[in-house]
Amino acid sequence: MRAKSLSLLRSAARCSRSGPIAPRVAHYGVRWSSTSTRERQWSTPLAKSLAEAITTTGPVSVASYMRQCLTSPEGGYYTRHAAGHDQFGAKGDFITSPEISQVFGELVGIWLYTEWLAQGRIEGGVQIIEVGPGRGTLMDDVLRVCWKSLSFERIGRQALDCAEGNRLEWAMLMDGQTIQHFKPFAKSIEALYLVEASPHLREQQNKLLSGTAQFEKIDIGYKSACKYLPGREITWCEDIRFVPKEENTTPFIIAHEFFDALPIHVFQNIPQSTVPSASTIITPTGPITPKQGPKPTQNQWHELVVSPIPSTSTSTSTSTPSRLSSQSSPKPEFQLTVSKSPTPQSLLLPIISQRYKALNHTPNAIIEISPDSLSYASDFAVRIGGATPSATPSATPSSPPADKPSPSGAALILDYGPSDTIPANSLRGIKQHKTVSPFSQPGEVDLSADVDFLALAEAAINASEGVEVHGPVEQVFFLSSLGIKERAEKLIEKARVKCVGGMEGDEKAQEIVKRIDSSWKRLIDRGPMGMGRIYKAMAIVPHISGKEGRRPVGFGGSVVG
């Protein structure tokens, strides 16, 4: 989510990988006073609520802290509705790729179409599902690709066929407002689902995608008519578990800057010589006394937990790299500390993958794990390829999987994070396009963390034998393979013709051309901190017998079907 503020953070995060920057081991025994908590002036009502809860029950996991900050009904970042405040866009806290250029969403729509072609032009039962749709801008662009203007089948097929290597030449682009629509693909769409927890964002999405159609409450969420696809409805659900999972449907799933906002647990591999003896283990229902056994002689994973910074403290150490701090940034009110005792999460999560086990002998190694992300990736895979009977509990989605006679569909994940390493020290706060401490102004600061793409791939493959995973690839490669340069050039040409031939004149044309040109180049900028390098694309597609070795468009493949 957070295109503009990522570059500075990346520079600092790269410097932090060699060792921990956040935990303060000296705070094993930190204590709080309920009286001082009540009297203290907190930056937000949510900050006060969190502090009071922690004072009562003890420190909370980073995942719990993130979940409260983002979606708490008492003032979470996405669930609150402050007058005149919009999180997205130039006037908000961050700007996303669909807001930067319409071409981004159009190319996502084209990618869905190429997968539909590759899977034999499925004639019905297609679902379009987007998780975390923001203001609905991306889905709006995708649906315009499917429906606007003249028939793509009649005009544009030849252009698809003359792909040069991995690059699609979109010579047919556009007589109307967007690229030629894909009518047979649009006709195959049976239902559209948006997975959105925020009532305020659901309202924005409904206005954009449904116009004045009635917004009706139903048993699994809300529904309204789609203004682009006559006779089709858009259904809103708070969680993907409520989206129907049927054996004869073909789901095409979009997850753009979704996984970066899902809660993470953070663990540090602590040498036993530095761990004080513990008499209790913290659990969700309260402390329990463990049976005393032989003291471990090897390193042990401990969870990093969140607690209020004592009001008398003068330290400013938090998980935010020091080079990101500034005098004008809001001061953090919470801090990370190492849990005194093992937690259920620290005993379970670091052993679910060999990638984590490989760090068992690395003192002070820090890893971030997002169980919610693994659950979503597993769910995507099961919807596309059916469930693997032997799937481990960690990889099994929360909703019962349906048997699927033939794998079909696809999931496209676009987000940021390392290609082949486990994220560490990546939790960040973003406000007004600047990186701030994630422990300041809870509910008013957006929180995100790097996506562990390999963990998503592992979860998907473990959940379903009927899928394969491609990527991650850098966004510049993905968008260039889909023809972003050719599409932008066509838009520029049309803008010049329209403005020079109309009343606006050449000055207006130059302004529009400059905006289009800078926007698409920003999306594929491959500089050290550019979006083309930082952002990645990953695809979960069906494993189809007889088509082994097929690569999707954007991942080294060309158009087939």
From TrEMBL:
Keyword line: Methyltransferase, Mitochondrion, Transferase
Q: Where is this region: Disordered?
A: 309-340, 388-412
Q: Which GO terms describe its cellular component?
A: mitochondrion
Q: What does the UniProt entry say about where the protein is found?
A: Mitochondrion
E.C. number: 2.1.1.320
Name the SUPFAM superfamilies for this protein. S-adenosyl-L-methionine-dependent methyltransferases (SSF53335)
Q: Which InterPro entries match?
A: NDUFAF7, NDUFAF7_sf, SAM-dependent_MTases_sf
Q: Which GO terms describe its biological process?
A: methylation; mitochondrial respiratory chain complex I assembly
The UniProt catalytic activity note for this protein reads:
L-arginyl-[protein] + 2 S-adenosyl-L-methionine = N(omega),N(omega)'-dimethyl-L-arginyl-[protein] + 2 S-adenosyl-L-homocysteine + 2 H(+)
Bias class Low complexity marks the residues at: 309-332, 388-397
EC class of the enzyme, as a word: transferase
Which one of the record's GO molecular function terms can you name?
protein-arginine omega-N symmetric methyltransferase activity
One Pfam family this chain carries? Answer: Methyltransf_28
Q: Which family does it belong to?
A: Belongs to the NDUFAF7 family.
What role is this protein assigned? Arginine methyltransferase involved in the assembly or stability of mitochondrial NADH:ubiquinone oxidoreductase complex (complex I).
Q: What is this protein called?
A: Protein arginine methyltransferase NDUFAF7
